[in-house]
Amino acid sequence: MKKIQFAFVILAGIALASCSHDLGYDEPTNALSGEAIDFSSGFRAVTRASYGADAAELLGNQFIVYGAKGAADGSGMSTVFDNYRVQWALNTAGTTASNTHDWEYVGIPFAAPATLTGNQTIKYWDYSTGMYRFAAYSVGKATLTTGTPAAGEVKVTAIDGNNLTTLAYALEGLEGDLAKCYISDMTPVKKEHYQEVVQLQFRSMAAKVRMAMYETVPGYAVKDVKFYSDNTTSIATGASSNSAILFSSDAFYTGGKYTVYFPDLASSNASIANLAHVSMDVTGATKANTRTFGELPSGYLGTTLNTASYAGSDYTVVLPNEEGTNLQLRVDYTLESLDGSGETIKVHGARAYVPMIYTQWMPNYAYTYVFKISDNSNGRTSTDTSDPEGLFPITFDAVVESSVENTQSTITTVATPSITSYQMGHDPKNDDEYKAGKDIFIRLINDGALINDLNTAGKSKLYELGSDGTEVDVMAALNIGTVSGTTTTGRNGLVLNEATINNSITAIPRADGNDITVDAGTAASFSPVSGKTYAYVYLVSTGTPTDHWTAVKFATEPSDWSTAGLYALNPDGTGNPGAFDATKVYYNKYTNLNNVYAVKVIKIE
Fold it and tell me: What pLDDT, on the 0 to 100 scale, is given for residue 17?
């Protein structure tokens, strides 16, 4: 009989989907006459592109533009458009040399944040220069102000061409108003493209976040998930929210001042050189400790990644936070047996964490956080905190032998950390499994603290599974099994072949082309092979090995019968078995390492 240590933890999975960088918009065309500089606009959204009148409506029919000219390498830039206001008027394209796409700037009075007076004038391409640069923003349908912003207003500062890499301009207001603002990346125009319309692509200041859950608990379905809003509510009180809640001690921004800047202008990497970054000025910023999503669908949680149950029908709009914050999830839920008996078990206070590097919300990006309830969770089946965490299977040991009166069952309490896995470009709604060809990255958090010793020998390992197995199956095989070279064969029959993993990485790629810098030992990565199933394993702590004896009866003599100390006559391991006798019941020794592991099973498409 298999006597396996079972425990239970929620593993947090994360998938980050970026906005597209090639969404449709009006193609640049030549100016109608002369060499006048004129503008068109496109609006980049996470899910679609808008242009023409649709883009104009989103931008509140106007935007503010800064433009400068200089050498082809970006040096010696001088201002051309000093915070010009560009306005939309339907069916006006072609009426002036400066308007080919219904956007006009000539003759419009200067207004704050511009410091110039009078009317804006026409601008012409200067062929003695090698490059122009343009950056723009819009406060959408909010009112642009230079005073203290009230609801419906956004305070702005002039775009400063002398400080583009550190503080190009700032937008200040409440969450609802800032979330409706739009910014453009820096748009460079080289000499060979002079006379073409300046195509500015705007993207939303807001980010979008959604969350989902699924379960893989053998023999049970998961229902009635309730959410906590903090770490302090006792499990005796229990969770009360039907709406999904993520919370953080670092909190979520609900208003304040964002600095927009272009720190990589000098970079030779074209994909990041002109990217606009935003940073909240924490002085005076307002925050909330929770972010609430919609309700999970009624009934049972989905049982695979691409059938995961999503909280609400759409994303939740949030303000960007490029620094990130550790996210926490805490839930109660009910397990219902799949055998038709109607038996239920309530799990209290199960929790998971998402590391802050995966919560660095950028403007116009969409983020999906998927939480997996497996057979390895840290919730309790009792509200008495002195009872152990986890789910423990009921096991039996029965021998029909009058001289045997003892039975034995052993279990080990395991409290494992949350494991977050990430593969760039992975879409959990469409991809049930990760794909080959791109590295998978791993991070772990234990009770809110980032684990930083993955590069310590023996702590962080990767195994290829010889057959299907759950997280608990893997833990059992590691604790009760035999090792031959790089292969572990569990007493439960699961075979684990050690695979290659890099535990010393210092960068994780992000969808915008930038790498996220991490300290060595805080993240791991591996290159998956198509069709394989892997188990990522982190050794939380080393236990004290214990020997156990289980009743066996063989028809023929086992090949290892002569191995000293492996078989006994009595359930406590005493009694020399002597010569093999097929009519007798013997006791076979196995060793439980009692190690505590964090495990995540990862399947590759």
Answer: 34
Q: Determine contact, residues 496/477, Cβ cutoff 8 Å.
A: yes
Is 475 within 8 Å of 392 (Cβ atoms)? no
Kindly indicate the confidence band of residue 409, based on its pLDDT and cuts at 50, 70 and 90: very low
The pLDDT of residue 380 is above 60: yes
Whether residue 243 contacts residue 293, with contact meaning beta carbons closer than 8 Å, is answered with yes
Q: How many residues does the chain have?
A: 605
Residue 20 Cα distances to 23, 48, 203, 205, 362, angstroms: 6, 9, 11, 15, 13
**Is 323 in a helix, a strand, or coil?**
coil
On whether the CB atoms of residues 498 and 487 are closer than 8 A, the answer is yes
530 CB-contact burial (10 Å; exposed 0-12 / middle 13-18 / buried 19+): exposed
Smallest CA-to-CA distance from 544 within 580, 592, 582 is with: 592
For residue 120, give the 3-state DSSP assignment.
Answer: coil
> Residues with Cβ < 8 Å from 236, sequence gap 6 or more?
383
Residue type, 470: T
**Phi, psi angles (nearest 5°) of residue 271:** -70, -20
**pLDDT, tens digit (0-9, with 9 covering 90-100), for 161-202:** 999 999 999 999 999 999 999 999 999 999 999 999 999 989
**pTM of the predicted model, to two decimals?**
0.83
Say if CB 411 and CB 254 are below 8 A apart. Answer: no
For 205-231, letters b (16+ CB in 10 Å) and e give bbbbbbbbbbbbbeebbbbbbbbbbee
